[in-house]
Amino acid sequence: MTPAQSRDAALDALGKCRQQIESIDHELVTLLAKRVALSKEIGAMKKVAGLPTLDPAREAEVIRRAASLARDTGLNDEKVRDIFWHVIGLSRAAQVGE
Amino acid sequence: MIIITRANISDAELDAIRERIEQRGMRTHLSRGVERTIIGCIGDESLLAEVPLRSMPGVEDVVPVLKPYKLASREFAASPTIVRVGDDPSRPGRVAAFGGKSIAVIAGPCSVEGQEMLHASAEAVRDAGGVMLRGGAFKPRTSPYAFQGLGNTALKMLADVRRSTGMPVVTEVMDPRQIDSVAEHADMLQVGARNMQNFSLLSELGRVKRPILLKRGLSATIKELLMAAEYIMAQGNRDVVLCERGIRTFEQATRNTLDVAAVPVLKRETHLPVIVDPSHAGGVADLVAPLSFAAIAAGADGLIVEVHPDPANALSDGDQSLSFEGFRTLMQRLVPFAEAAGRSLGTNAAKEAAA
């Protein structure tokens, strides 16, 4: 391959990877929306059952699971912890009806 | 409260301890050192009163942090914090590191007066061994009639000069409404002495993803300075550099009185880097060198110095600004003091950080 050809091939591969990332981002946001919708349902059920909306023990469990999974997949677990505290924040807000 | 763990603790054991704390509605912060790992507990400590943390696997000791500042306190981190400025992958250029072995010198004009003088200052500072450029865009002046700074125009000039010279820039933010645009253009945000206890500003800065340079208030105690840092850190931003810039005393021969003792006291109390501003402390150019020597001898991690292409015609603080030549001489004279303190000086900070 000439340098020009290999450059074209690299640009082509780059474009494909970017497309994949776009569709992953799309999935991520869709999944977040699903998670928030479920949290809303849970919030309503908790109300009926007379349970408190905030459940720190459950949140701590979610964080622990995410951190451990992150390590298994080779991701920085501290960063994933931070991300999940934000995800939990979204769900919390949905449950308290913000 | 901090939890000191055994050296050989496993990730699963660390997770289990953190879960026990987070179950109570608190947050945790992990600090890994060479010899030990520390879990810091953030939140209302009374929530942990009945949790038998000491008996959990991997726990060596549970120590209450008695100081009113927790996140900023020495105990909270396993080793001194190194704050890296300009370390944003989307921005090419150099990185300045504060708190490591090398002493980082920031220099530049008190206020940005124009593109040309800023560019010339950046090059002069860089070539003399400075690692960062300073330049005021918004100036908190004692008189409402004094030059107030070029504002957003100056921010754009700072960003341009950063791009062309690779020098990270620091500039002051006075108002929460300015934070977004300052963070967009600068690499480090400065809280000026007059705003050290502006708690709403500090809290907002805690949510910014850029390091903060926090200057000591004119009449603030060391404890108050650390509490101000705590405000920023409590919101999540852990990259805070403290700056001693002289305090107000009865003495009138100097603009302020440089509290040299604040440097070792702060180094004992906190894991955060500490730098000194000899220009504002002394208030005259002649005092910049001796106060810089004292600062380095006392253990400061860096300096912030005012430099101007033409000090006699500066729009603000001309009396205390060094000329380019004066700054070059200062940098050369600092070398033996840095060596005597077991440190190195100058561009090393950027090189070391980039490695």
Shape of chain A: elongated
CATH architecture of the largest domain in chain B: Alpha-Beta Barrel
Query: What is the CATH class designation of chain A?
Result: Mainly Alpha
What separation lies between the terminal Cα atoms of chain B? 35 Å
Helical content of chain A (DSSP H or I, runs of 4+): over 70%
Main interface: chain pair and counts? A-B, 14 and 14 residues
- What assembly state would you assign to the polypeptide chains in this entry? heterodimer
**Average pLDDT over all residues of chain B:** 91
Kindly describe this structure.
- Chain A is mainly α.
- Chain A has a single domain (3-95), classed as Chorismate mutase (Chorismate Mutase Domain, subunit A).
- Chain A has 3 helices and no strands.
- The N and C termini of chain A lie far apart (58 Å).
- The model of chain A has no long low-confidence stretch (mean pLDDT 92).
- Chain B is α/β, with parallel strands linked by helices and 355 residues long.
- Helices cover 32% and strands 18% of the residues of chain B.
- Chain B has 11 helices and 15 strands.
- Chain B has helices at 11-22, 115-128, 152-165, 179-185, 199-205, 222-234, 262-269, 278-282, 288-297, 324-340, 348-354; strands at residues 2-5, 27-32, 37-42, 59-63, 83-85, 96-98, 102-108, 132-134, 169-172, 188-191, 212-215, 240-244, 274-276, 302-306, 344-345.
- An 8-stranded parallel barrel of chain B has the order 7-8-9-10-11-12-13-14, surrounded by 6 helices.
- Mean pLDDT of chain B is 91; it is low at 348-355.
- At the A-B interface, helix 2 and helix 3 of A face helix 1 of B.
